[in-house]
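Before relying on records like the one below, remember that each one covers exactly one chain. Contacts with other chains, cofactors or solvent are not represented anywhere in the record.
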Amino acid sequence: MFDFNYIEWFKSFPPEMATAIIAMIPIAELRASLPIALVVYKLPLASAFFWSIFGNMLPVVFLVWLIGPVANFLIKRSKLAERFFEWWFKRVKEKFKQKSLKYGVQLALVLFVAIPLPLTGAWSGAVASFLFGIPPRRSLLLIFCGVVMAGIAVTLLTQTGIMMLD
């Protein structure tokens, strides 16, 4: 089984590096890294926010250009990869399609990434941008806007939770 105890995995790392690495992990992204940075590592808000955004965006830079070629390469060579990408692409399309019909593809991408729920972050946003034909440079800008919005939401939720505990 998977062990999602990020704090234990990265306890020997400097807090800033641990925050960035946690933010790079699919599903965790900045939804996990920001609260951990603020509550566990006690990083200042600006530092926690910067390292979470940086870590969340770093893999996206590569994903928006490589998801298509890598997926096609792996699908041709592995049934397991084919099943995984079919599942992932179908799931992202289903979650993204409603928003794209309502708001248009570009605004939908920002909102899709900005909502801090599982499977709607920057990684899935990169896949959605590929599936819906948004050019990589434009995708990066739109995903970055969504990540910043998600960061603000997670920060507010975390700060509210911290204040309620005090």
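The first helix runs from residue 6 to 9.
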